[in-house]
Amino acid sequence: MPGDATDTGRGLSRRGFLLGGAAAGVGAAVALGADRLVGAGAGLPDQRQAELDAAGLNGARTVTFHGDHQSGIDTPIAAHATYLGLRLLERTDREALARMMRVLTDDAERLMSGEGALADTEPELATVPAALTVTFGFGPELVRRAAGAAAVPAWLGPLPAFEIDALDPRWSGGDLLMVVSADDPVTVAHAVRMLLKDSRSFASLAWRQDGFRRAYGSEVSGTTMRNLFGQVDGTTNPEPGTAGFDAVVWCTGTGATAWVSGGTSLVLRRIRMNLDTWDEVDPTARSFAVGRRITDGAPLTGSREADAPDFEATTAAGNTVISPVAHIARSRPVDSREVIFRRGYNYDVAPAGGGVSETGLLFASFQADVDAQFTPIQRRLDEADLLNEWTTPIGSAVFAIPPGCAPGGFIGETLLA
Amino acid sequence: MNAVLTPARLGALAAVAALSLSACASADEPGEITITDPWVKAAESGMTAAFGDLTNGTDETVVLVSVDTSASPTNELHETLSDASGGMSMSQKEGGFEIAPGEKLTLEPGGNHVMMMDVTEPIEAGDTVDFTLTFEDGSTFDFTADAKDYTGAQESYTPQEPMDMDS
Predict the structure, then answer these.
(1) Is B48 a domain residue?
(2) CA distance B39 to chain A (A)
(3) Binary contact (A201, B124; C-beta < 8 A)
(4) DSSP secondary-structure letter at B151?
(5) What pLDDT tens digit does each residue of chain B (167 aa) get?
(6) Which of B39, B124, B127 is the closest to A119 by Cβ?
(7) Domain for residue B154, yes or no?
(8) What is the pLDDT of residues A19-48, one digit of tens each?
């Protein structure tokens, strides 16, 4: 099964949660820590043993590299992700692209298995894979150089211009995308360094965007994340492993674009969130803007996050409970095809100028067809969405994500071999 | 002369070994020479080097005496030793590298390596380079190495200033 996390990862996290819940949290963790004295915990001072979580150490978890699909899409989302956008050098032609992807594939494969890359100068840093994934994507220029304009899917290119956009070229576009994610930031740093070193002969780094979510083990795996507005963000995502997910995400190209079959597309939007003006908004108004309660993510017409919103329900005064211009009202599918799979991360970087924060969301969505699935939603949000008051897209990029590969193959071989 | 070491067969084995770390021969059957993770430092021209872990899976000691590759007309087997000036320097290994049965010769940056003296055509990252190793008994072993960009493995490394041991 491509890109499945090892059983230990998922199984232990679930078991750890159940035990923790049943035996009142900390007590259970301490007891299990003591049970593990002969194992990893042996030799540590008492103080440290109490800190071990119930599942033990997690750094050895690996995600399978080979398969029909690349990892980092339907695999469990990791705590840290770095998005790298590269520009191809003038001289990088089809032949060089194949060499580049062979080298980078080999790096990803070895690093994800917890060993150093070939000619790794710091292989010691690779021994804690922490569910590392590396995902490659191609921009239109790379596809053109590889196989001509006919091979570029119709949806692969800049999105239409939107009124709400204030795009900065430093966060936009790109010929080659690499997404490195893991539950350990040291692992990410090492893999990023290795991959960028090995791409220098072919491409230069155009931008880098670092994102984070809750640390591994802080919450039950699969908990919908909260963005830095405090908003539960990512409800109603398709569930990996279901037929619905497969239909939403995986491409079925034919003819000149058959190379992307089994792959997908990524829309990456850097969305600045203005926390200073959001601070001025009281909880009720925040919930009204989203259409969900900030406290727990439940729709304003429901009681739990999983409840389906009732967009027809009205107040005593005759208005809909969920505003027609609330975020969830505007972003819901009008056509049944308008479904996307989101995999977002927070960013929080040093502010420029006099502010105290530069914060936002690395909005990432996967879909089989950007034009049919993503763009209609974005168009509606552009026309009206109460959240636009506090959010501004400042970066935008679209990539084709080629399918996975079997042992001995390389990512991009359907285009380059 | 070890009849097991036919180039074609060993070439295929080397390809397998490059994919799998566990491709070593078992102790019970007549083993083979294998190489794990062979790679060569990409170079425009001139000198560069090749590396990998060479394992003697046979039941006899072998002595690696020479290396050939079409990528460079002249190649040497080098070792790295500390020299009188307090630095490290590399020189040709007299008599070649002896590998006892079951032992591994590690060819790595800063250590023993295959020195390619005169690269004629650029070796670019992602290229593959074919090598033939010749042992003292005349047997040979073929393998293919992947080229990687690498800024270490400099043939002579001379610190610009005396090293500060406290830092």
Answers:
(1) yes
(2) 8
(3) yes
(4) S
(5) 333 444 444 444 444 444 443 334 344 445 799 999 999 999 999 999 999 999 999 999 999 999 999 999 999 999 988 877 777 778 888 889 999 999 999 999 999 999 999 999 999 999 999 999 999 999 999 999 999 999 998 765 555 554 444 44
(6) B39
(7) no
(8) 333 333 333 333 333 333 333 444 445 544
**pTM for the full predicted model:** 0.84
For A104, nearest residue in chain B (alpha carbons): B126
Q: Which residues of B touch A99 (CB under 8 A)?
A: 124-127
Give B22 to chain A, closest Cα distance, Å.
14
Q: Domain residues for B60?
A: 8-148
Q: Is A233 a catalytic residue?
A: yes
Residues in chain A within 8 Å Cβ distance of B42: 201
Contact yes or no for A359/A137 (Cβ under 8 A): no
Interface residue B35 vs chain A (CB under 8 A): no
Q: How far apart are CA A335 and CA B37, in angstroms?
A: 52
Please state the domain count of chain B: 1
What are the Cα distances from residue B16, in Å, to A102, A241, B36, B67?
Answer: 17, 33, 9, 21
Name the residue facing A200 among B37, B126, B149 (closest C-beta).
B149
Between chains, do B152 and A121 touch, taking CB under 8 Å as contact? yes
Provide the pairing of β-strand A176-182 with A264-273: unpaired
Q: Count of CB atoms within 10 A of residue A338's CB?
A: 18
In a domain, B1, yes or no: no
- Among candidate residues A120, A183, A233, A385, the one labeled active-site is A233
CA distance B26 to chain A (A): 23
ipTM: 0.80
User: What residue spans define the domains of chain A?
Assistant: 1-57
**Which stretches of chain A sit within 8 Å of chain B by CB?**
96, 98-100, 102-103, 106, 118-119, 121, 197-198, 200-202, 407-408
- The CATH number for B58's domain is 2.60.40.1890
One-letter-per-residue 3-state SS of chain A: CCCCECHHHHHHHHHHHHHHHHCCCHHHHHHHHHHCCCCCCCCCCHHHHCCCCCCCCCCCCCECCCCCCCCCCCCCCCCEEEEEEEEECCCCCHHHHHHHHHHHHHHHHHHHCCCCCCCCCCHHHHHCCCCCEEEEEECHHHHHHHHCHHHCCCCCCCCCCCCCCCCCHHHCCCCEEEEEEECCHHHHHHHHHHHHHHHCCCEEEEEEEEEECCCECCECCCCCCECCCCCECCCCCCCCCCHHHHHHHCCCCCHHHHHHCCCEEEEEEEEEECHHHHCCCCHHHHHHHHCECCCCCCECCCCCCCCCCCCCCECCCCCECCCCCCHHHHHCCCCCCCCCEECCEEEEECCCCCCCCEEEEEEEEEECCHHHHHHHHHHHHHHCCHHHHCEEEEEEEEEEECCCCCCCCCCCHHHHC
Q: Which tokens is A12 given?
A: 């232990």
Which residue in chain A is spatially nearest to B42 when comparing CA positions? A201
Chain A residues lying within 8 Å of B18, measured CB to CB: none
> How far is B1 from chain A, CA to nearest CA, in Å?
33
